[in-house]
Batch of 4 targets.
Target 1
Amino acid sequence: MSKKVAFIGLGVMGYPMAGYLQKAGYAVTVYNRTTAKAEKWADEYQGAFAATPREAAEGAEIVLACVGNDDDLRSVVLGDDGAFAGMSANTLFVDHTTASAEVAREISEIGASKGIGFVDAPVSGGQAGAENGVLTVMCGGAEKDFDIAAVAIDAYSQACKLMGGVGAGQLTKMVNQICIAGAVQGLAEGINFAQKAGLDAEKVIEVISKGAAQSWQMENRYKTMIAGEFDFGFAVDWMRKDLGICLDTANEIGASLPNTALVDQYYADVQAMGGNRMDTSSLITRLRKLS
């Protein structure tokens, strides 16, 4: 495999992910909508940057992307300046965006008509996971494409698994977000209850986190939730985007998501309180306001 790759999208996740690729010995060319950020990345990691996705993708064997949503993905992949315009046959596009399974299949079909492979590969682990190079990556695509993608993904992941055909990665990420939504709401209610009952909430969590109630959210967010600190991690706006994808897909396939729909509305309440950019653990602010 060629060591020349491109990375499109330098948000809080993409910026360090592209950095890990460069550190792993790949020759990385990045593209970002805000050129100043691409220039900063190139200076920090001694890589290259391009003015368009097409220019970034030219000559790359693998093009990776991590952007905001379905429309963002289409905008950087398709069109005269899109990545596909700069890619040749027998190359591979890997999408780390949390998007719909529908857009994954759409982009995959267009790529296939050009001889370009496609893997949808949404990630879990948040900003900290990206910065520490320990993301979990769930993939959808052909096994031969996954085998190529996994070698590059290893630079910033601790786990990477093929879940099925194109779209399966996105569907798995939806399951991830459905489970997280319930876990965060449960933790928020538990901490708020403990405090209202006059208990030392930190001591409560320290005890119950050693039993069946344990979760990643509990281990990593309880102290900041108790302290009312929410200026880090995965923003409410992005969580609502993800839950919207889950709910839309559930309607399409006939799956019932009553708890997810409820938590989504709780996040809408947090947005109405001005918490759009707060971490998802800010669900507890709604309970404190109601109490």
Note: The two ends are 58 Å apart (CA to CA).
Target 2
Amino acid sequence: MSRTESAPALGLRRYVRRYYGFTEKAPSPVRRREGPGVDVILLFSFGPGWRIGSATDPSHPVARVGSFVAGLHEECVSTEHDGESHGLQVSLTPPGGYALLGLPMNEIAGRTVEAAAVLGAGEDLTEQLADLDDWRSRFALLDRTLARRFERARPPSSEVLWAWDRLARSHGRVPVGELTAELGWSRRRIVARFREEVGLPPKTAARLLRFESAKTLLNGADRPPLADVALASGFYDQAHLSNEFRRITGVTPATFLGQREQISKTT
């Protein structure tokens, strides 16, 4: 797979983490175990569509989508295309997704939906992006388009934005009780506001952030022992981390990493 990554314009970075364009051609269908991640994903597809389902529950219905929006998921998903993919991904913070999409984030949590269903003119933007000749021009168009949309958007509450930033910077290691105490909110209130503006309760979001922190360490060039990764990422011990891996990905850490290494050798 060929991939080109870019940071968004400076004024967008509170809400938009990154852009990346990708192109892949393979002789047969390509299937991957992805996520779950801690971003809301907006993907513009310039070619054939995708089949997206659960990586841990084979009985879960498979969604067939072109350009799509994916909310926060608690578990990995399975993505598959027929051997050709070409498009551009926008990774949004959950409060950024709330502002851009203008809907309660719990409505798309755990779901992948067609972009046109939530963006309105999203398909027009897909065509505009696809018609451009290079990634730099596409990223510049996204900067302009997203800036206009955010100017008109209802912003996330300052309290949830602060709490999300605090959780993200700590990789999910700030206790929810500490957040509620600093905000002067009840636990019920912070759960309700996070469901609306993030998509998941703060405790669940913190678990995902810790998992992503551990996954980043395990994917590094100098991979520490699993026990060290567990402690560095806020898990009780190696067993706790292994159990989380199985719950979120459906496989052990060793199997998960082996699958990712095999993908990297073939793409």
Note: Strands lie at 2-6, 16-25, 30-34, 40-45, 50-54, 63-65, 68-70, 77-81, 84-92, 112-114.
Target 3
Amino acid sequence: MPVYICKTCGTSFPQTPTPPAQCPICEDERQFVPRRRQQWTTPQDLREDHVNGWARLEPDLFQIQTHPNFAIGQRALLVRTPQGNILWDCVALIDDATIELVRGLGGLKAIAISHPHYYTTCQDWARAFNCQVHIHADDREWLMRPDPHLHFWEGESSVLADGVTLVRLGGHYPGGAVLHWAAGANGQGALLTGDILQVAMDTRRVSFMWSYPNMMPLSERTVRQIADTAASWRFERIYGAFPGRNVMADGNAAVERSAKRYIELLNER
């Protein structure tokens, strides 16, 4: 029996004879079901017509993106550290070439995921590299495919390696997390954010949303809380969910400035 993967969000489901009746992640208001309804693929079919492309973003930081675009289209980011490599977020495609390239870089110490839209096939990545997947316990209900490699962390932060820390910001999802990499940006710090802080088209800005596809905002209180938590970490750069969405300078100031403007617009009369 195959594992089925939702073509809209990339989430993988347990092995069954036929595709699931629905995808709960897409049925949720933070995602969507296409007008042509839910469609499904399998890991084998995905490997036949897609490949993963690579890019080096800075020393010890690599981008993995699936071509042609699949599901939400996010990238995964691989951070190299002296204590082992960390994969941030996941893409649904994992093939022999990807496994060989990751092993050539030293394998994986851990996988960490920002929020449920990027769980994809994290279970298969974890099995391939015999490592844990770190997911905040507040988002446990959205994990569609149980696996012994899954680790549900709790609280406001969790250290994965020296200078590599998961930080819960919430907002888009209750357990929404970012990854602080102290060695990034030549030691000035980098924040890997997925959609929790969404780097905007104007890459001097970030935004905050409850639902991106359905354009539903967060409250002033939540945005202020996210910005205040982020401000307690030092970072020059922000690497968002999608290729090219990088704040390359003044990361802390970009978050504070963006939060201030967002709140101003919420309160305009």
Note: The mean pLDDT is 97.
Target 4
Amino acid sequence: MEMIKLTENAEDILEAIYAISREKKVVRVKDIAGRLKTTNASVTVALKSLSKKGLVVHEHYGYVELTEEGEKIAKKIHERHKLLYEFFHEILGLPSDTAEQDACRIEHYLSKEGLQRIVKFIEFIKKCPEGAPIWLTNFYYFLEYERLPDSCFRKERLTSVSEMKMNEEGIIVKLAGSAETRKNLIKKGFVPGATIKVLDKKGKKITVQIKDKKEDLSVSLSKKIYCLG
């Protein structure tokens, strides 16, 4: 099935219809106009276009209803908006009204990949068994006081793999470097909580055991892996 292309205004109207239909038994043009702070005439024009696309049913002066396809699209738009609101309000700590405004502004321009990352990020925060990660708590502190908390400077117990001695073991607690570097390390098994052991150190290469396999690391890469001894 060919993907239906919608303007920003059309998406807003579909989302408004979806939201209003969950608050009221029927949806009227004036309800949509009031929610979007626009005129009845502009809503009517948009509804004619959406009707031609098979997404809404609207008889002149009648109620507005979403078709099956229209409801499917509207639900996705609504859920996207809700997730962005949660990201700005619950994760970044913006006031509710600001979070709502920013969600409205950005939702039409965010890539599918960008939205999916935000979805995964929110899911991670909500499912983390110990609540908000320490780094997120530190971020809230930074927002409030405009300075880093003391915990950001406590490195006395952390050791990079490059600093570890032969046959020394440690538990990985942190990965540094670019996003691409961290992603590649994770793919190879260098994940927080994993036990790592230094087997050999020769020149610019360090051989380690991670789980039940051996991996060769460059010295520069080994400096990106931090462990607790």
Note: The chain has two domains: 1-110, 155-228.
